[in-house]
Amino acid sequence: MDQKFNLWFTEYQTNDMALSCRVKKTLHQEQTQFQNLAVVDTDQFGRMLLLDNVIQTTIMDEFVYHEMITHVALNTHAAPKRVLVIGGGDGGAVREIVKHPSIEKVVHCEIDGAVIEASRKYLPEIACAFDDPRVEIVVDDGIKHVRNNKNIYDIIIVDSTDPVGPAEGLFSASFYSDIYDALKEDGIFVAQTESPFFNRDLIPRLYRDISGIFPLTRLFLACIPTYPGGLWSFTMGSKKYEPLDVDVAAIPQMDTRYYSPAVHRTCFVLPPFVKELLK
């Protein structure tokens, strides 16, 4: 067998489970100030961004995550103009946000500038909106940014890595409280909140923390093949707007492949085992 067919990347998603992909080529690898960064080209998922040997995004399924972490909140808010993205150095969330004509400013706060640069070079389909004139890139700690900016944003998206290392502080009640203060009086916050199968202890804590700060808290789901378990959760904290009250018939047509007006409503329909986590 040809040598190239023997190169595999394996992510150990839990202590007892792994996901392996055949790698055609390693495109980039470096040790940044914060983490090990790599971009590999795989047969199954196309180009793939890895941080500390954990899959962050892939060309094949990235649209699901990026559309769901953004459009649900953007179409819930009455008139979003100013949005903050914390993390998400690949730029996928920014790409989706600027599809909305009401947006005047997107501040993208990413702690590791190397992720942005690697994404620009190797994931141009995802990082394609970084040069939009409405986008401001801030290479800084998102925790510090929200603490220092009060009553500024209509929507804050926390597009974080898993709750270890540099991202651990992005899963804390004190951080959510600072986000509340950084939002305007009708602001909305969304964070990725991990797997209902494999993070059964984390999700209830996050939901409890967020619902203790925001008047309205909702958890919603999407299917993302490369993330542990394939079923992924997002949690929304809203000061005013109820996503279930959105007139889905009024949601404008957009260039999306997963999110739709129907999905906006159905993503909040939780299976009983997920509902149990929120009790």
Task: Pick out its properties.
single chain, 279 residues, alpha/beta, Spermidine Synthase, Chain: A, domain 2, Rossmann fold, 7-stranded mixed beta sheet, 5-stranded antiparallel beta sheet, 8 helices, 24% helix
In angstroms, what is the radius of gyration? 18 Å
Return the CATH topology of the largest domain: Rossmann fold
Task: Let me know the largest β-sheet.
Answer: 7 strands, mixed
The number of helices is: 8
User: What is the domain tally?
Assistant: 2
How many beta-strand elements?
Answer: 12
**CATH homologous superfamily identity of the largest domain:** Vaccinia Virus protein VP39
Question: By helix and strand content, what is the structural category?
Answer: alpha/beta
Task: Give a description of the structure.
With 279 residues, the chain is α/β, with parallel strands linked by helices. The chain folds into two domains: 3-58, Spermidine synthase, tetramerisation domain (Spermidine Synthase, Chain: A, domain 2); 62-277, 3-Layer(aba) Sandwich (Rossmann fold), CATH 3.40.50. It is 24% helix and 32% strand. It has eight helices and twelve strands. The chain has helices at residues 62-74, 92-97, 113-122, 142-147, 173-182, 202-211, 261-266, 272-277; strands at residues 8-14, 17-31, 36-42, 46-51, 54-58, 82-87, 105-110, 135-139, 153-159, 183-192, 216-223, 231-238. The strands form two sheets. Strands 8-7-6-9-10-12-11 form a seven-stranded mixed β-sheet, with helices on both faces. A hairpin with a 7-residue loop joins strand 11 (216-223) and strand 12 (231-238). The model has no long low-confidence stretch (mean pLDDT 94).
